[in-house]
Design brief:
Layout (H helix, E strand, L loop, with lengths): L1 E5 L6 E6 L2 E11 L2 E9 L2 H16 L11 H12 L7 H19 L9 H11 L5 H20 L26 H11 L5 H10 L3 H5 L6 E2 L4 E2 L8
Antiparallel strand pairs: 1-2, 2-3, 3-4, 5-6
């Protein structure tokens, strides 16, 4: 080994393993009766020092550097199965999470290593969804990733939540026109006897969204109590 340069005790070491390849080593201490060290490699001394310092920061934050690298897909699958399914998350929310994972997050970012995911990766992913999804839906997908990475950070699997640094598209302001009482009466008079008359009556009386209206079942209706139980649809 040439050009070896030792750092102060506890900081690890950086050295040129061979021409053009620099190595950094961080001592992780004794684990299960064995001395563990983490090795990383770079093309320059400066890059090796940066990687070494990043490892030291992760170690100080409590990240388990001895754990086998896992992909984002592996973590998201574990997160949904072992974390969210048992922490009181509502079933309708779990359905929304599963849709976000299966349709967007796993195909788009699943193969990226969890500890290698960067804000730029997330930003490019969100940008790639434009034109495919409405801005509101992209915001929902981003929110699922942000929650999943927050739990990964809490469990010391990553040093920070990189999804926080990415920005989803802004929601544009949509001008909506409401029916006047006179126009609403006219609409209902035209629909008298139509098979969808009751649907429009309910829509005008409650202001429910289309997906909420179409998702109603008889079990959601309490006629004696004059109540209607509405579930928020899982829309991604």
């Amino acid at each position: 080994m040439t050009g070896q340069r030792r750092r102060a005790h506890g900081e690890g070491s950086v050295y040129e393993q061979r021409p053009g390849v620099w190595a950094a080593v961080v001592d992780l201490g004794w684990i299960d009766g064995k001395r563990k060290r983490k090795h990383v490699y770079a093309k320059s001394e400066a890059e090796a020092v940066r990687k070494r310092d990043d490892l030291r920061r992760q170690l100080q934050l409590g990240v388990d550097l001895t754990a086998q690298p896992r992909t984002l897909e592996a973590w998201l699958t574990e997160w949904l199965r072992d974390v969210k399914a048992h922490d009181g998350t509502r079933p309708s929310t779990l359905v929304r999470y599963r849709l976000a994972l299966s349709k967007h997050l796993l195909p788009g970012l699943g193969r990226v290593k969890l500890d290698r995911l960067t804000p730029r990766d997330v930003q490019r992913f969100l940008t790639g969804l434009r034109g495919k999804l409405a801005p509101a839906s992209i915001i929902k997908v981003h929110a699922v990733l942000r929650v999943a990475l927050a739990d990964a950070e809490r469990m010391d699997l990553v040093p920070r939540n990189v999804a926080k640094a990415a920005k989803p598209p802004a929601l544009g302001r949509t001008e909506r026109r409401a029916l006047t009482p006179e126009k609403a009466k006219t609409l209902l008079s035209v629909l008298t006897g139509d098979r969808l008359e009751s649907l429009f009556v309910l829509a005008l009386a409650t202001g429910l969204r289309r997906a909420e209206l179409l998702g109603l079942r008889w079990s959601d209706v309490d006629l004696p109590g004059k109540a209607l139980f509405v579930s928020t649809p899982a829309e991604l």
